[in-house]
Amino acid sequence: MPTLRVLSLYPELMNIYADRGNIAVLRARCEWRGLGFEHAATSLGESLDPDVHDLFYMGGGQDRDQAAVAHDMAETKRDALHSAADRGAVVLAVCGGYQLLGHSYEMEGEELPGVGLVDLRTIREPGERLIGNCAIEADLGSGPRVIAGFENHGGRTYLGPDEHALGRVLSGHGNNGKDGFEGVLRGNVIGTYLHGPLLPKNVWLADRLIELALGLDLERLPGDDMEDAAHASARRAAGV
Ligand code: GLN
Fold first, then answer.
1. Residue pLDDT, tens place only, 74-112
2. How far apart are the CA of 91 and the centre of ligand 1, in A?
3. Ligand 1: which of 9, 99, 150 to mutate, most ligand atoms within 8 Å of CB?
4. Which of 37, 92, 225, 233 is the most exposed place for a label (fewest CB within 10 A)?
């Protein structure tokens, strides 16, 4: 029986807005299909093996927790994350975790290193935090779909010229409130500002990540009430 092996990075530090709910959804979607599910965690000072997990996950966090995580991740996990991404493992990072996938997160008076899995920079610019419900249209190889979520970030993220966003903003702010794009998608590396948590509101995305991580086509399961409600209100807000 195929088993999805998930590694959470810094779950005790990077878990704002109940982002750990994403793990619960991955587990449930696997178990409902009779797939195996294994979950492990890694944190400060620990190295990681790039070959024994199918999906690497990191949630969002406050600036002060990100500072501890950023330095540790660059020192102890950067190379392994690059090897894992190169062999096609799924990397999913939300908000504070997303910011640390790039080159740097520039805060007032301090620049945090990222692991450089994707070409992007995040800058804390003067101005309001970008807060509110957000809906985007994304295509992870199975046709365009809506991802609905909630964003709350002070950092503004700018993608390099050859990098692709995860989606086009239908409503909300997205990466920087200016260019109309949200998140990043490079191979199976996905970064997004969307909490919710993300996967309970978008179970189609959880299923797609399982497919990508295991190289499987999953049979469909019946619809999900929370996803339906989140998508209906996102469509209303976006007027689509
Ligand atoms: N601390 C980061 C910011 O404000 C990320 C916040 C979050 O993960 N919600 O930009």
1. 999 999 999 999 999 999 999 999 999 999 999 988 999
2. 18
3. 99
4. 225
From the CB of 62, is ligand 1 less than 6 Å away?
Answer: yes
Digit-coded pLDDT (tens) for 146-178: 999 999 999 999 999 999 999 999 999 999 999
**Helical segments of 89-202, H only:** 96-99, 198-201
Catalytic-role residue among 53, 95, 153, 231: 95
Find out whether the beta carbon of 154 lies less than 6 Å from any atom of ligand 1: yes
- Of 103, 153, 173, 195, which one is the catalytic site residue? 195
